[in-house]
Design a protein that fits this description.
269 residues, alpha/beta, Rossmann fold, four-stranded antiparallel sheet, 10 helices, binds adenosine-5'-triphosphate, binds magnesium ion
């Protein structure tokens, strides 16, 4: 590895394979993620996204290949990897019997950080959960729970963040809130690897997009690069109508967000 690579590449994956019994899920996965960027791993149900994330976060051993996170090898230095990452899984790690604040405090204590109460308050504020902080997580909406889950995983400011399907099951506004959170992370230098089945999520968030299909990365590039893979289409003139997403977002939210597209829709038609 050259010095330049060591400085810029936060996640390096080479030739990773994994089979479960006779099912060969990963057949040689290769990619790099530059530090401070958002990398989206796209794939259908069962493509192996969660399997790969579990390998990169040391929860599962690959059959072959190497993965280096923040300059730590997942096999020879799993402790270094764990200290460098956070993982928000496809299924929530929130303890429903505890309040939002208690969940955050618990993680701060487990990470041996000073002032867990103050850390919890900061995270509640950062994720717009201050008002709900003392309520049990069991009564949170899906979007609130997901934000709490992400907040919990970010305690201690890990340089590399894995988000496995961060917005599945969320309504459009909650998805945009999570996207904003992810953008903020990358803006502050955190490297984000997210998996998703939503093409628009990858389109709106990611610096680079990789497509995992039949166990390998079949394409990896910026949105522009991926779009250029298709032959240019014939130009047609059509009346532009707002998408359902534009209309929905305009109706449910008074504040116009950059993702909402068309801004003005008259309420109450
Ligand atoms: N522990 C396991 N034992 C056996 N098979 C497994 C195990 N974990 C995953 N698999 C299989 O590996 C394949 C890939 O699963 P994985 O969960 O990685 O897919 P995914 O891309 O995350 O899908 P989804 O979009 O549905 O979350 C599936 O066929 C799954 O059944
Ligand atoms: Mg999955």
């Amino acid at each position: 590895m050259t010095t330049e690579d060591a400085r810029n590449i936060a996640i390096r994956v080479r030739g990773v394979t994994k089979a479960f019994a006779e099912v060969q899920v990963l057949r040689g996965v290769d990619f790099d993620v530059e530090a401070g960027t958002i990398f989206a791993l796209l794939g259908s149900n069962g493509a192996g996204k969660t399997t790969l994330v579990r390998i990169l976060s040391t929860l599962l051993k690959a059959d072959a290949g190497t993965a280096v996170i923040n300059n730590w090898d997942v096999v020879s230095a799993p402790g270094g990897v764990r200290e460098s990452i956070s993982l928000t899984g496809q299924f929530s790690a929130v303890d429903e019997m505890l309040s939002g604040r208690e969940n955050l405090e618990l993680i701060a204590r487990l990470r041996h950080l000073k002032n867990p109460g103050a850390i919890a308050d900061t995270m509640l504020a950062r994720f717009s959960l201050t008002d709900a902080g003392s309520r049990k997580a069991a009564v949170y909406s899906g979007g609130m729970r997901r934000r709490l889950d992400i907040a919990m995983s970010l305690i201690g400011d890990p340089p590399v963040v894995f988000l496995d399907e961060p917005t599945s099951g969320l309504d459009p506004q909650a998805r945009i809130d999570v996207w904003q959170t992810v953008r903020e992370l990358a803006k502050h230098g955190t490297t984000v690897l997210l998996t998703t089945q939503y093409l628009d999520e990858a389109e709106k968030l990611a610096d680079r997009i990789a497509i995992l299909h039949h166990g390998t990365i079949i394409q990896n590039g910026t949105l522009d690069e991926l779009e250029r893979l298709l032959p240019s289409t014939t130009v047609e003139y059509v009346e532009k109508r707002p998408s359902l997403e534009d209309v929905f977002l305009a109706l449910v939210d008074d504040t116009t967000t950059s993702d909402a597209g068309t801004a003005s829709v008259t309420k109450g038609f």
